[in-house]
Backbone:
């Protein structure tokens, strides 16, 4: 499974949100174009710490310096259910690497720049059950909310098609970033009236004390849900990651409702390392 496509502005997209997204960093496909939205996001190539501001929304980040690798905006039209014309949206992809250019973590944030006239959102990924963890909260059909944890193999191995993803792909190769066989990804999405928030976080478990995985097949991976049942170390890591992801989700939800996070900063990812 590889990260997929997205970004920029209208020509016109007629696809359900479920088809417009693929689990992980696979969330930014829209209709492409350049607009005066650049002032609403940090510039690509810059480094940020503490918080990320996208338009009217501010997100808390884990400690450390994050490189702004890619950003894009676009308008999405959701047609599977009764809804409005979609929301003008901005997406920002951040990455952390260590001193020897090994991938540590990445974050994808996606939010509307303004509220839309939408009475129902479609996101079938909240129905996915073959994950390491899933919480569908109230299971509201019109306004889905879910937290998912999944393992992703072949992370940024296959060349993408969208301009947004191509910038990530090129940055990884231009900077000689060393990628693990498998990353763990947690994603939180919440839809509320004419607004929504999406945050996706991928971490390299090897940087937090876990043994390298060797099998690049998703179903045969050492991180597959069926495999970690008999692997206490990996099961404990997923449980710790789950707790971290709930804090991330609480802050993302606060940003959705109040335009600012609940906390000054997210917990350090270093806390994922087991003693």
Residues:
């Amino acid at each position: 499974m590889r990260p997929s496509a997205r970004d920029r502005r209208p020509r016109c997209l007629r696809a359900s949100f479920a088809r417009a997204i693929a689990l992980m960093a696979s969330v930014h496909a829209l209709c492409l174009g350049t607009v005066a939205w650049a002032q609403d996001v940090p510039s690509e190539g810059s480094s940020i710490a503490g918080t990320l501001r996208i338009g009217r929304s501010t997100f808390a980040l884990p400690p450390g310096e994050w490189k702004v690798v890619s950003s894009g905006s676009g308008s999405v039209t959701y047609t599977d259910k009764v809804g409005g014309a979609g929301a003008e949206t901005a997406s920002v992809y951040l990455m952390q690497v260590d001193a020897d250019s090994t991938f540590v973590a990445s974050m994808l944030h996606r939010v509307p720049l303004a509220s839309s006239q939408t009475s129902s959102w479609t996101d079938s990924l909240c129905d996915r059950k073959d994950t390491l963890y899933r919480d569908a909260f109230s299971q509201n059909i019109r306004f889905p909310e879910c937290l998912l944890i999944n393992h992703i193999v072949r992370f940024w191995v296959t060349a993408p098609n969208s301009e947004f993803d191509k910038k990530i792909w090129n940055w990884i190769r231009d900077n000689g970033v060393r990628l693990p066989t498998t990353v763990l990804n947690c994603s939180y999405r919440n839809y509320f009236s004419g607004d929504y928030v999406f945050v996706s976080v991928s971490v390299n478990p090897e940087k937090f004390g876990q043994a390298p995985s060797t099998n690049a097949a998703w179903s045969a991976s050492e991180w597959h849900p069926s495999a970690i049942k008999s692997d206490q170390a990996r099961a404990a890591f997923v449980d710790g990651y789950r707790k971290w992801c709930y804090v991330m989700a609480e802050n993302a939800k606060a940003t959705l409702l109040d335009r600012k996070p609940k906390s000054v900063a997210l917990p350090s990812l270093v806390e994922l390392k087991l003693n």
Observations:
- Confidence is low (pLDDT under 50) at residues 1-37, 78-84.
- The first helix runs from residue 17 to 20.
- The radius of gyration is 17 Å.
